[in-house]
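>> received
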Amino acid sequence: MISRLDWQQANPTEIQYTFQLKSRQQWGYKLRYEGTSLILALRHPPDLGTQVKFRPRVGWGNNDPFDPFWNNWAGGLEVIPVKSLKGMTILLDPGHGSSNDLGARGPTGYPEKDATLILAKLLRTELEQRGATVLLTREGDEDLYPQDRATQINRLQPTLALSLHYNALPDDGDAMHTQGVSTFWYNPQAQSLAMFLHNYLVMKLHRPSYGVFWNNLALTRPTVAPAVLLELGFMINPEEFEWIVNPKAQRQLARAIAEGIMHWVRLSL
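>> returned
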């Protein structure tokens, strides 16, 4: 899993370790003390399986997969990327969740908590159809503090964690002219996922971009898995609100997020 480990004495009371990993993507880690020993546990990439097939090249070998020369010639092997998410556990956190925590509200008073739950259940279906195991932090109205949700991530240790939200504006914001998708990340292992999902949704759905942000939030802070918070539009913008509550658009959004995760995983393994 580790190709190289470097260390240096940063100052008289600090040692800095640098891990060079064999995989392109860091999939999570845990830190703990056992007595005076600091234990670092690095997470292996998910085992989604690959297919290997023989592809003949004109002028080389006899195209017989059982021929020793052909079998040992690396150029005759092609690794096919995974075609499903089987082996991955994805945690979805529908933002907010009760009469005490409505979240942002649209022009009609429609609460964010309902929109995020609808999206989470649609996204669960899309991800399960692609083979993933999906966990939700809530199935209905439930009072959950941000730290309660982060605790679930740390306890359940999913492969990925996505917190689903719709955005709000401060009182002096321009509701008519502010819209777009934004994503938030904190730990470096989540930056690639945040960037990829954001760009994929903006291009695939032709949505405005509100940006990608580094932010130390309760739901981006867990280290056990890449954790990203999505703000998928502004509830108070009348035009965007119509898109947010449109059943067809909700299904398209869920499908696009699932497709984006699939593409990112293929590039990351």
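>> The longest strand covers residues 2-11.
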